[in-house]
Amino acid sequence: MENTLAVIGAGTMGAGIAQVVAMHGWQVRLIDVNASVLSSAITGLQKRFQRLVEKGKLSKEIGLQAFQRITAQDTITNLKDTRLAIEAIVENLDVKRKVFADLEAAVSSSTILASNTSSLSIAAIAKGAKHPERVVGMHFFNPAPLMPLVEIIAATTSNSQSVDDAYDIAKTWQKTPVRAKDTPGFIVNRVARGFYLEALRLLGEGVASVSEIDLVMRTHGQFRMGPFELMDLVGLDVNLAVSTSVYEQMDRHPRFAPHDIQKNLVDQAHLGRKTGRGFYCYDGDTPLPALHAERKSFDLSPLLRDAITVFTHKAGLSDAGSTEQYIFARILGAVINEAGLAFSADVASADDIDIAMQKGTNYPQGPLAWADRIGHRNVRGLLRSLQDHVTDARYEAADLFAQAQ
Ligand SMILES: NC(=O)c1ccc[n+]([C@@H]2O[C@H](COP(=O)([O-])OP(=O)(O)OC[C@H]3O[C@@H](n4cnc5c(N)ncnc54)[C@H](O)[C@@H]3O)[C@@H](O)[C@H]2O)c1
Questions:
Q1: Whose CA is nearest to atom 6 of ligand 1?
Q2: Cis, bond preceding 177 (omega within 30 deg of 0)
Q3: How many CB atoms lie within 10 A of CB 164?
């Protein structure tokens, strides 16, 4: 019997997931309440398969077969033949719960039910389900056909069989699954907050401009994109919604506090590439910074200067000026500490945290491998001296570093 997947929601993520799965020989039932979204998803998928054929990535026959495996429907009914259903609809708890109730009525008793939510708790989505034990998270990354990572989320209510099956199925689609606990932001959307928010804080403090900060992270950190370029690509509104959601769910810890600079840009509808303006302006051939940096002088204690020198030296930075070292140390330090906090809170294994950051958001190295290279005591030294400069607890070191011998 052929494997069959139901995808609920034919938007950006649902259509991308349908493409991946159909290419791996599964039948796909693509479902959306909005008839025009559904028909443009089908047209879009046909074009995508044609393009893959034109580029020589698929033979004409395979491309056609993959496309023909996808069928569209506008109601959640008659899904008894599905092995798995993945929900990828609007990020709204009540609407998702209603979809899971409809799914339970439509699928068989052995179908696994997964949500692609980025920010809601899987246990909360499963609450009210007749069989919450078969509800798991399968968090894909955008664009789903290109990004290898899938975070497999086990809620406290999920049974291990459903979680293991979701993990194994993702592997058969040639994805890279990692396991994570049902906690705010899971792995990637939590650990990546440091990359964005620390960059925003540096900008707000007048340490450097948008393009200078991006350049430091690209050239010295080997990141494919700097934090501001990446926020512009993702969409400032989408990025802010994730920061706000994690902040609220983490009891408003100061290290997750969304930044006013970003809120103001969102209020002005400067959302990044999609609106032609965000941190950069996209009018001409080359993006130009759209924000004027109000530079201020800053004083660092000798202790902090020493800690930055050791941290950046061990991280392999050469020929960087002192401001560049400071920018790099603050951003990478925040990312590494968040990875350590996630590890110490048992969100995922160290390997899975590192794989997730490389495969879900293209980091050049896993943050915990980076911390090993720098030395946990040196990471702690940096965090402690940064902490001495602020009044809230934003740089409090993860146990992994605080307890390093
Ligand atoms: N876009 C991303 O980068 C991204 C990445 C990872 C996860 N996610 C998550 O994936 C989910 C979908 O995001 P998206 O960006 O694809 O959204 P989207 O707005 O592109 O698509 C959502 C689709 O769901 C449909 N829908 C709404 N209610 C429905 C219902 N009751 N039944 C059937 N269809 C319904 C809408 O008509 C729409 O077409 C969200 O939970 C989001 O958090 C998004």
A1: 141
A2: no
A3: 14
Residue of 116, 121, 158, 189 marked catalytic: 189
Write down all domains in the chain, each with its CATH number in brackets: 4-181 (3.40.50.720), 190-402 (1.10.1040.50)
12 Cβ closer than 6 Å to some ligand 1 atom: yes
Is residue 189 part of the annotated active site? The answer reads yes
Decide if 229 is catalytic.
no
Q: Measure the CA–CA gap between 228 and 83, rounded to whole angstroms.
A: 41
Q: What are phi and psi of 39, to 5 degrees?
A: -70, -35
Per the DSSP assignment, residues forming a β-bridge with 62 are: none
Q: Is 235 in the pocket of ligand 1 (CB under 6 A)?
A: no
Between strands 4-8 and 70-73, the pairing is unpaired
Would you call 178 exposed, middle or buried from its count of C-beta atoms within 10 A (0-12, 13-18, 19+)? buried
14 in ligand 1 pocket by Cβ < 6 Å?
yes
Angle between helix axes 210-219 and 227-234 (nearest 10 degrees) is 110
Token pair 């802010």 is found at 240
- Is 204 near ligand 1, meaning CB less than 6 Å away? no
With contact defined as beta carbons under 8 Å apart, do 350 and 368 qualify? yes
**Could you read off the pLDDT tens digit of each residue along the chain, which spans 405 residues?**
479 999 999 999 999 999 999 999 999 999 999 999 999 999 999 999 999 999 999 999 999 999 999 999 999 999 999 999 999 999 999 999 999 999 999 999 999 999 999 999 999 999 989 999 999 999 999 999 999 999 999 999 999 999 999 999 999 999 999 999 999 999 999 999 999 999 999 999 999 999 999 999 999 999 999 999 999 999 999 999 999 999 999 999 999 999 999 999 999 999 999 999 999 999 989 999 998 888 998 889 999 999 999 999 999 998 899 999 999 999 999 999 999 999 999 999 999 999 999 999 999 999 999 999 999 999 999 999 999 999 999 999 999 999 998
- Classify 72 as helix, strand or coil: strand
3-state secondary structure of 9: coil
